[in-house]
Fold this sequence. Notes:
It comes from Micromonospora saelicesensis. Pfam families: Aminotran_1_2 (PF00155), GntR (PF00392). Residues 9-77 form the HTH gntR-type domain. The chain is α/β, with parallel strands linked by helices. The chain has helices spanning 12-25, 37-44, 48-60, 84-87, 112-121, 135-146, 161-172, 187-195, 212-220, 242-252, 291-294, 307-319, 326-337, 339-365, 385-394, 422-436, and strands at residues 64-66, 72-74, 96-97, 154-158, 178-183, 199-206, 209-210, 223-229, 259-263, 283-289, 301-305, 377-381, 397-398, 400-401, 412-416. The protein is 41% helix and 15% strand. It is globular, with a radius of gyration of 23 Å. It starts with 11 loop residues before the first helix and ends in a 10-residue tail after the last helix. Pyridoxal-5'-phosphate binds at residues 101, 160-162, 186, 229, 234, 263, 265, 289, 291, 296, 301.
Amino acid sequence: MSAHYQLTGTTAVEISASIESGIRTGALSPGAALPPVRALAAELGVSPATVARAYQELRQRGLLATAGRHGTRVRPRPPVAARRSALRPPPLPGARDLSRGEPDPRLLPPLGPHLAALATENAPSVGYSDAGVLPELAEVARARLRADGVPAGELTLTGGALDGIERLLGAHLRPGDAVAVEDPGWANLLDLVAALGLRPIGVPVDDEGPLVAGVAAALAAGARALIVTSRAQNPTGAAVSAARAEALRALLAGRRDLLLIEDDHAAELARVPLHPLAGATASWAFLRSVSKPFGPDLRLAVLVGDETTVARVSGRTRVGAGWVSTVLQRLVLALWRDPAVTELVQRAAQSYEQRREGLLAALAEHGLTAHGRSGINVWLPVADETSTVTALRDAGWAVAPGALYRIAAPPALRITVSSLDTADLAPLAAALAQAENPPPSQGFPT
Ligand SMILES: Cc1ncc(COP(=O)(O)O)c(C=O)c1O
């Protein structure tokens, strides 16, 4: 915790408000440790039960996490608007930032020409009563999904994959319910699960996707939903293989008590085939975002699923946000239909693959085995995240500590390869090897 931030309050409500305010202003940064319950109780002159209630309320709202001997900490992305600068400390000046998990902006299709074309198209404006999914967009989206073996019947749109996951979980689960998530898995999803008051159950992942035994254990532990990343799993790059999909489908076959959510966020960028699980369970949804291939600012994902699940999501959207902007839908449709954009996305996919495989090969030359079957990230197991991240920072590279993505998985680093050039690969691999295996200390013998 910041040495300068003084927690205050004599009731649970006041103490939790003081912590929340610290998070909002940035005085308590993501990952900051809070004092042990008894220590804070003694400092504030209240009973430990009062402090414990304050911590519990903030845990249920996803602001705090308690992790065994690591004590209680501020979550990496607490659901309270903080200044952005407080969420992610900037890398040292001059350092190369490989910690962000973003596509390379140079490889995203330029939107200008299509925005200009839309401006001259003069399409009829859409009002409240007629708004929804544009039929022509739905048609193209279904065709694209069916070409990949996804049974795309009922369809709706959401403001991105994570918005879709939030709506799906909200429509099927209640606070306190358990959700099976990949471990390691996407940090934003772990934060969302916490913010919804749900309990994550970690399912171990290998290069071929979630382990069957891990999913079985999560089901036995009462998971009400299972979230699987089809390809370019974040952070490991795993992609569900044909054999793993078959085994998972057999395990899940006919289950009526589980919501299966598949996140195909890499979509056209994934250079491995899709092996969907869609339809294995009675309640299922398959999400395909446009963020990675076409740009994260587009905020649109296609959601298909069983009739009830899709109706719940689209019905709930109708009474709230209403619909995904028709202007945005027209833009996405124009991008999908443009062969030059398709070619650009393919080139981007190829380029990410070269960088990823180049880094894996360069690491192998140093005897380091890393993971990254698809997508824009490489996952490198390390002995100690903190010391490796610090040593790399000193060498001029910012990478993400695996702790952001892990529940019980062993330590590792996530390295985003999207902005790397070929010339970077050898020096980066050398710096990683050096950080992981520092030369023996030159100090006095002990
Ligand atoms: C696993 C995963 N799903 C989805 C997304 C994209 O989500 P959205 O469509 O909300 O931009 C990302 C982006 O990093 C991701 O890593």
